[in-house]
Write a structure and sequence with these properties.
By secondary structure, the protein is mainly alpha-helical. It has 6 helices and no strands. Helix 2 runs antiparallel to helix 3.
Length: about 110
Amino acid sequence: MPYKTFLGLPENIVAALCYPVGWLSGLFFLLLERKNKFVRFHAMQSILLFMPFALFIFLVAWIPTIGWIIADGVGMPGLLLIVIPMYMAFRGSKFKIPIIGKIAYDFAYGE
């Protein structure tokens, strides 16, 4: 039986829901879920992954003419950044993205 969360859902489902809306869904579940470390790990990883990514796309899009092309070129493949960690969270894995995964793990599991 998977561990329950504040919402009453299994932790793997809530952890997977930390990714679809980028850093906003990560922030939502980080603030909502206070006890489940697995969900807090994936929520923090989502924030650390998508906030700089969204900021980069926002800033690049302001470059005249070529900015939108670069932003689209980076943003579309960036959808894999949603699908892969979301799938791994759904499987119940503590899939750590290099560098930010360790920071998120230390945040959630470190004391």
